[in-house]
Design brief:
Blueprint (H helix, E strand, L loop, with lengths): L4 E2 L2 E5 L6 H14 L7 E6 L3 H16 L3 E7 L2 H11 L3 E5 L8 E7 L8 H11 L17 E3 L1 H13 L9 E5 L9 H7 L3 E5 L18 H10 L3 E5 L6 E4 L5 E2 L1 H14 L7 E5 L4 H10 L2 E5 L3 H11 L3 E3 L5 E3 L8 H15 L3 H5 L7 E7 L3 H6 L1 H14 L4 E6 L5 E7 L3 H17 L5
Parallel strand pairs: 3-4, 3-5, 4-7, 8-9, 8-10, 13-14, 13-15
Antiparallel strand pairs: 1-2, 2-6, 5-6, 10-11, 11-12, 15-16, 17-19, 18-19
Helix pairs in contact: 1-2, 1-4, 3-5, 5-6, 8-9, 8-11, 14-15
Length: 447
């Protein structure tokens, strides 16, 4: 991870540690970098945060000042930017979003021409330019100055792409959607309606300040209540930029990314479409997923946390399915990055084909209790590498044995260290999480 770019782009509080000057310089560098040999074409999407408009104009100014043409998708999802980049011949794409963070945060995600997250080496070059460690970039002049182009049609093509994927209509299937007052608000319902579902929607009235506020995939209880009260067959919740999906079954029970991976992985295996009989997970996936995969003869590989790492592994090895517990699920046949709405459609495919409710399909995975605690620290690396902290982690791992595990890692987007413990009982999880956190406090590592 660099100074500015973490596992999911350049993220921070708007006009505090992510400013319009940062965005302008990102645009300046990308416009110059991709325009060395031809006039660069770069597409921009944004979520519904109030600050997204500000950053959109700053990025567009930087791009056009460097000679690139900036194509504006306006409010759209991260996966739609990925789709448009790789199908419409753009040099790269930019998504303005802080994903599941509160409205006052924002972020800049850069997507390469293959529809994947930008390479770390180029991110480092952008950081060097921002901090004045590289040569100044010349301004475009006269006819070489770039222009902005309204490209709302690109979002419509993405909607058409999603509608074309399912092999059957949903025939009055009762579906609930929680759009998190974010990007999905402009896309999700129209897709499900076009496919014949009886679609009910909550949190689809963004005002710039309510994105992710007690709703969406990180506040799933709202959709649980809605599905149960309305008697729906299934529900899907997205995050702010709709690259995540968490499902709710007909009983109002949560079906997280791990269970989605299992349900879709088992179905693809039965169809002979699970490449190399393998799914790709991150180190945060639950032990219950792995035990269920072992039972079904499904192989798995682990990566670091972040869908960019899952995607890299999948593309390098030709795998068809991978994702995260948090709901970033990648179906490589259709997308290069996590896509919440696509994930919903793929789950619907399984439900329609198997003719079984989601509670039955997902109930085959016995999820182990898991406790995750975020500890805010002054120095993430120092906290994780502290000898007493490492000794406490090792002692917990030995005590948990084969029926549990402990994982301590640095956040890629926040000044926190995450302590995660899985065990057979909640009390055991809490015991070892608190033990490690207490050592951090004793060592004066907590901010």
């Amino acid at each position: 991870m660099g100074k500015y770019f973490g596992t999911d782009g350049f993220r921070g509080e708007a006009n505090v540690n992510l400013t319009v000057e940062h965005a302008y310089k990102v645009g300046r560098y990308l416009g110059w970098y991709f325009g060395k040999e031809h006039k660069a074409k770069i597409v921009i999407g944004k979520d519904t945060r109030r600050s997204s408009y500000m950053f959109e104009y700053s990025l567009a100014a930087g791009l056009t000042a460097s000679g690139a043409d900036a194509y504006l998708l306006h409010v759209t999802t991260t996966p739609s930017v990925s789709y448009v980049v790789r199908t419409e011949g753009f040099d790269c794409g930019i998504m303005i979003s802080a994903s599941h963070n509160p409205f006052y945060d924002n972020g800049i995600k850069v997507i390469n021409s293959r529809g994947q997250k930008l390479e770390a080496a180029v991110e480092q070059e952008i950081e060097d330019y921002i901090d004045g460690r590289s040569a100044e970039i010349p301004f475009a002049r006269r006819e070489k100055i770039g222009r902005t182009v309204d490209f709302a049609a690109g979002r419509n093509r993405y909607i058409g792409h999603l509608i074309s994927i399912p092999s059957r209509a949903y025939n009055d299937y009762r579906v609930g959607l929680d759009c998190s007052n974010g990007s999905a608000s402009s896309i999700a319902k129209s897709v499900f309606d076009a496919l014949g579902a009886r679609t009910s929607v909550i949190h689809s009235e963004p005002n710039g300040l309510n994105i992710n506020a007690d709703c969406g995939s990180t506040h799933i209880e709202a959709l649980q209540k809605f599905v149960a009260e309305q008697g729906l067959d299934v529900g899907f919740a997205y995050d702010g930029d709709a690259d995540r999906c968490i499902a709710v079954d007909e009983k109002g029970q949560v079906v997280d990314g791990d269970r989605i991976l299992y349900v879709c992985g088992k179905y693809l295996k039965e169809q002979g479409k699970l490449n190399r009989n393998t799914i790709v997970t991150t180190v945060m996936s639950n032990l219950g997923l792995y035990k269920a995969c072992d039972r079904e003869g499904i192989r798995y590989e682990q990566t670091a946390v972040g869908d960019k790492y899952v995607s890299e592994n999948m593309m390098a090895n030709g795998y068809s399915l991978g994702g995260e517990q948090s709901g970033h699920i990648i179906f490589s046949k259709h997308a290069m990055t996590g896509d919440g709405i696509l994930t919903s459609l793929m789950l619907m495919e399984v439900l329609m084909e198997k003719k079984q409710p989601l509670s039955v399909l997902a109930g085959e995975v016995a999820i182990y209790p898991q406790l995750l605690k975020n500890v805010r620290v002054a120095d993430k690396q120092a906290a994780r590498e502290n000898p007493r902290v490492q000794a406490a982690v090792q002692a917990a791992a030995e005590a948990l044995g084969e029926n549990g595990r402990i994982l301590v890692r640095e956040s890629g987007t926040e000044p926190v260290v995450r302590i995660m413990v899985e065990a057979e009982e909640d009390a055991i999880c809490e015991k070892y999480v608190n033990q490690v956190a207490a050592v951090m406090e004793e060592e004066d590592l907590i901010q």
